[in-house]
Write a structure and sequence with these properties.
Order of helices and strands: HHHHHHHHHH
Number of helices: 10
Number of strands: 0
Distance between the termini: 14 Å
Shape: globular
Radius of gyration: 16 Å
Length: 194
């Protein structure tokens, strides 16, 4: 739950920043920001189709297990496409599908499942990718400790133009203090609950 709250908060911060830029003003409207906030928790919906032996494995995945894990993008997009067939034209479902399908694409075209490149990756997925990676880097996982913000920042900046859209990197740099505040707020609530 805290992961989803942090990621949706990061997505809101990034989209709010982008909405102020001339080149995004017509795309990143108040409605877009709202939809991004609401749909971002569905990015990994396809993981419901991944066997627990792979999904919950505490160590590094084998090549075969990683191939299975990668199918969560396709499973998620197919699930949301099925909902869209029942309810065509629903913007919430369209954005959720785009995020589920494309949040592991990389700006340089080396991602999965479709090896999309640059602006062929939906903007919502490019935003979610940075938010999700930042959270993964700065959160403790079974297989790793949390990285400090500065370490995560260095990793992310080093991937500008390869994993991440340089425009989203710029938005991240301009909103770092807000990222830290969200990370700390939800880390504290988790500690209090323990």
């Amino acid at each position: 739950g805290a992961h989803l709250e942090r990621v949706r908060g990061y997505c809101r911060i990034l989209t709010q920043y982008l909405s102020q830029l001339t080149e995004y003003r017509e795309i990143v409207t108040a409605e877009y920001i709202r939809l991004m906030y609401q749909t971002s928790p569905l990015h990994d919906i396809g993981k419901v189709g991944i066997p627990d032996t792979v999904l919950l494995k505490p160590g590094r995945l084998s090549d075969r297990e990683f191939e299975i894990m990668k199918t969560h993008t396709t499973i998620g997009s197919q699930t949301l496409d099925a909902a869209l067939q029942q309810f065509p034209g629903i913007a919430f479902l369209e954005m959720a599908r785009d995020i589920a399908a494309s949040h592991h694409e990389r700006f340089d075209g080396s991602g999965y499942p479709n090896r999309l490149r640059g602006n062929n990756i939906p903007l919502c997925a490019r935003i979610l990718t940075l938010a999700d990676v930042y959270d993964a880097l700065t959160s403790k996982r079974v297989y790793k400790d949390a990285f400090a913000h500065d370490v995560a920042r260095g990793i992310i900046l080093g991937e500008s133009g390869t994993q991440f859209d340089p425009a989203i990197i710029e938005a991240f740099q301009k909103t770092e203090a807000e990222f830290i505040a969200i990370r700390d707020r939800y880390a504290e609530s988790r500690a209090i609950a323990a």
